[in-house]
Amino acid sequence: MVLRLARTNVEAHLFIELHPCETCGETRFIPPSSVVVVDGDLASRYTGPCPSCGTEREFTFRLPEQVTVPDEEEPAFGVDGGASEIIDAGEWLWVADLIIRNAPAEPDEGMTAEQRRQALIDLRIAAAAVGEAIKFVPPGADAVPVHALWTERGRSVYDAEPGRFRKIRLEAVQRTYRELSDGFAPR
């Protein structure tokens, strides 16, 4: 078994959500995890039944050498600077798009403090997801290479608009999402 690295628990859980149950299509799956040794590597194993149909599911990821504690208000999917081994560049943009579709563009007078905080976090997660796509741009290159899109979902995002994968555009989108999030910060 070749284990791919999940750089953080957040990245592992996102990967699991991106891979629905093969029997019923359910995306909800929050199983217990355990630390195991696979081929001499420490790994995190998530196993349990699908909450909808009961099909047994299992995901195993190699653990990073250095484990980090996540900061909810400064989300990060990977802390080592390298690109993800489990989620491709197009999937990262798909995640950012999904979040942005449901996030407010600016604070509303009627928002509670908790709604403002959630909007801030959601926009920062979207910015972090775009930042993950940027990590696939090789040094000296100006765009994400096609080989960084190994999933059907990732390729479909790319095929719909290849220009989105240019580094300068990714950086502008990331910066915009971050600036939008700052508008929801407590005053």
Describe it for me?
The protein is α+β, with helices and mostly antiparallel strands and 187 residues long. Helix content is 37%, strand content 12%. The protein has five helices and three strands; from the N terminus they run H-E-E-E-H-H-H-H. It has a three-stranded antiparallel beta sheet, with no helix packed on it. The longest helix is centred in the middle third of the chain and has 22 residues, at 113-134. The chain is globular and about 50 Å long. The model has no long low-confidence stretch (mean pLDDT 92).
Summarize the entry for a quick read.
The protein is an alpha+beta fold. The chain has helices at 9-18, 89-101, 113-134, 152-160, 167-182; strands spanning 33-38, 41-49, 56-62.
Distance between the termini: 50 Å
What is the β-strand count?
3
Rg over C-alpha atoms, rounded to the nearest angstrom: 17 Å
H-E string: HEEEHHHH
Please describe the biggest sheet, giving its number of strands, its sense, and whether it closes into a barrel: 3 strands, antiparallel
The assigned structural class equals alpha+beta
Low-confidence stretches: none
In the sheet with the most strands, the strands line up as 1-2-3
Beta-strand residue percentage: 5-15%
Helix content: 25-40%
The geometry reads as: globular
Q: What does the average pLDDT come to?
A: 92
* Count of alpha and pi helical runs: 5
